[in-house]
């Protein structure tokens, strides 16, 4: 799935940064979604949707500090 995110990344020069963000926050997004949905398949769908959105808008999003980015990703996974 990571290759799909990298393919739609809005700035291809940011691949390494996106991979870092993905690896750091994928568990947080998944667990947040799982707590709300109670279903692992639905939580995985939320994870995919959140990171697809992040990839498409990464040039705007990656500038956030780590606390703001974590809060933003949790907020996305709740909606």
TrEMBL record:
<dbReference type="InterPro" id="IPR013325">
    <property type="entry name" value="RNA_pol_sigma_r2"/>
</dbReference>
<dbReference type="InterPro" id="IPR007627">
    <property type="entry name" value="RNA_pol_sigma70_r2"/>
</dbReference>
<dbReference type="Pfam" id="PF04542">
    <property type="entry name" value="Sigma70_r2"/>
</dbReference>
<dbReference type="GO" id="GO:0006352">
    <property type="term" value="P:DNA-templated transcription initiation"/>
</dbReference>
<dbReference type="GO" id="GO:0003700">
    <property type="term" value="F:DNA-binding transcription factor activity"/>
</dbReference>
<protein>
    <submittedName>
        <fullName>Sigma-70 family RNA polymerase sigma factor</fullName>
    </submittedName>
</protein>
<feature type="domain" description="RNA polymerase sigma-70 region 2">
    <location>
        <begin position="22"/>
        <end position="78"/>
    </location>
</feature>
């Amino acid at each position: 799935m990571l290759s799909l995110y990298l393919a739609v990344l809005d700035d291809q020069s940011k691949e390494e940064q996106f991979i870092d963000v993905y690896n750091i926050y994928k568990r947080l997004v998944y667990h947040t979604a799982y707590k709300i949905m109670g279903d692992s398949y639905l939580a995985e769908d939320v994870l995919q949707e959140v990171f697809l959105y992040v990839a498409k808008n990464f040039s705007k999003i990656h500038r956030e500090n780590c606390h703001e980015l974590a809060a933003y990703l949790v907020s996305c996974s709740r909606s």
